[in-house]
Amino acid sequence: MKSKEKLQTAATTLFMEKGYENTTVQEISSLAGVTERTFFRQFKDKSDVLFDSENHLGKQVANYISEHSSDTLNPLKLAVSGFAAITLFDENRERTLLRTQIVESHPDLKERELLKAQTLIMSVENTLSPHFDSSLSMLSARFSVEIFHLAFVKWTHEKNKKFSEQIWSVYDTYKKLVELP
């Protein structure tokens, strides 16, 4: 296991045991078996351990959109398909659920999660915009991220469905809503 992964595992363990506020970088580093200097090479602070500061999720969705932009005339479906292609959550279910629990327990972390969502919207919008009208790109980015969030909440509560199934379920509900008179 790489030092970054060790630090993430140690931080999650300590945040769950002691709480986010009561955990120090020194304790995280010690449990991970690395120095504080190594910690700060990987992360800017202890909250950074919980967040995708490099926007890997946004990059995965953007890559999907770029690779499949000629497959459809529907930018929303394309963006939703990009989110549905993500396997990270199903592959790391326990860790993802713990992270969610930690973030939900602290107001500052919730706020950072909202900022992360804005970054995700911009990533999707910027990838859609060369292929679609700017208004369609903007709306599709916002709606797809909202569909992603609703699907994620459902996924955290329903163990028997994969994340992609939740995405398509929420997307189908959205389509029904749009079709209402």
TrEMBL record:
Alphabetical list of SUPFAM superfamilies matching this protein: Homeodomain-like
Pfam families referenced in this protein's UniProt entry, alphabetically: TetR_N
Residue intervals of the HTH tetR-type domain: 1-61
GO molecular function, one term: DNA binding
Chain segments annotated as coiled-coil in the UniProt record: none
Name of the protein this chain belongs to: TetR/AcrR family transcriptional regulator
Keyword Transferase: no
DNA-binding region location: 24-43
Organism this protein belongs to: Lactococcus allomyrinae
Keyword DNA-binding in record: yes
Record key words, sorted: DNA-binding
